[in-house]
Write a structure and sequence with these properties.
Helix content is 49%, strand content 15%. By secondary structure, it is an alpha/beta fold. It binds pyridoxine-5'-phosphate.
């Protein structure tokens, strides 16, 4: 399994004090030593963690390929074209969200996404689209000639968290998922089946299948059972674990599970 490590949350810590610590460049070799295959970063329009300087600096200094998550705002597309990451993953963005809450709405934004994909391809940048696992989104994505599709696994992760972890008893419980164990189990099974079928459909099109969002050391065990999934991009869980065991070990523990 190809393993992308999203280091945005290391930049969250740095931005909390607006100093150059932790230094993002120091994380690159630790991710590599832990067994990561790719560095993933998201230049958000509000620059809440990764900033323009990081994008250029990381692309220049990383031995591993860099996957830049980006919106289709003209400013962000220009930066991506200039800095040329190995891959651009187009994601939806809403300024008020805590994190990316769902996949791209391709029906609504098809033309704008198509223009961005063409521009990126002209610069030899591989393109991935972050979409929800459903047939409508896959059919739109198919028309765009992208190299990869990344499925948003937020629904799966939320169901898993409310069923099998202490999330239910925490400050961050998900009110709409305060359901019986039986209901959660059945919904989780359905969502896994949906992820599996969606992955099969994409693989049949000859497009690379990636997944990401909310994946962690527990729920990854179900994801790795789906053979069509070729890539994961994981951030929050790894950075959270690294607070206790260090980044290299946190990456290595996930590598082992994968
Ligand atoms: N993949 C994409 C496209 C993302 O936007 C994100 C962040 O939401 C991730 C992967 C990593 O998600 P997480 O930090 O929940 O592991």
């Amino acid at each position: 399994m190809y393993f992308g490590v999203n280091i945005d949350h290391i930049a969250v810590l740095r931005e909390a004090r607006r100093v150059n610590s932790p230094n993002l460049i120091d994380t690159l070799s630790l991710v590599e030593r832990g067994g990561g295959d790719q560095i993933t970063i998201h230049l958000r329009e509000d620059r809440r963690h990764i900033v323009d300087f990081d994008v250029e600096n990381i692309i220049q200094n990383s031995v591993l390929p860099v996957n830049l998550e980006m919106s289709i705002s003209p400013e962000i597309v220009e930066i991506t074209k200039r800095d040329k990451p190995n891959r651009a993953t187009i994601v939806p963005e809403n300024r008020n969200e805590v994190t990316t809450e769902g996949g791209l709405d391709l029906k609504r934004n098809l033309h704008r996404v198509e223009v961005a994909v063409t521009e990126l391809h002209k610069r030899d940048i591989e393109v991935s689209l972050f979409i929800d696992p459903n047939i409508e989104s896959i059919n739109f994505a198919k028309k765009l000639g992208v190299e990869a599709i990344e499925f948003h696994t937020g629904k799966f992760a939320n169901l898993f968290g409310m069923l099998y972890t202490n999330l239910r008893n925490s400050h961050h419980k998900i009110p709409e998922l305060l359901k019986s164990r039986k209901e959660l189990k059945s919904e989780l099974e359905k969502e896994l089946e949906n992820l599996e079928n969606s992955s099969k459909s994409v693989k049949e099109l000859g497009i690379r299948v990636a997944v990401g969002h909310g994946l962690n050391y527990q729920n990854i065990k179900l994801i790795r059972e789906i053979p069509e999934i070729e890539e994961v991009n994981i951030g929050q869980a790894i950075v959270a674990r690294s607070v206790f065991v260090g980044l290299e070990k946190a990456v290595a523990e996930m590598r082992e599970l994968l």
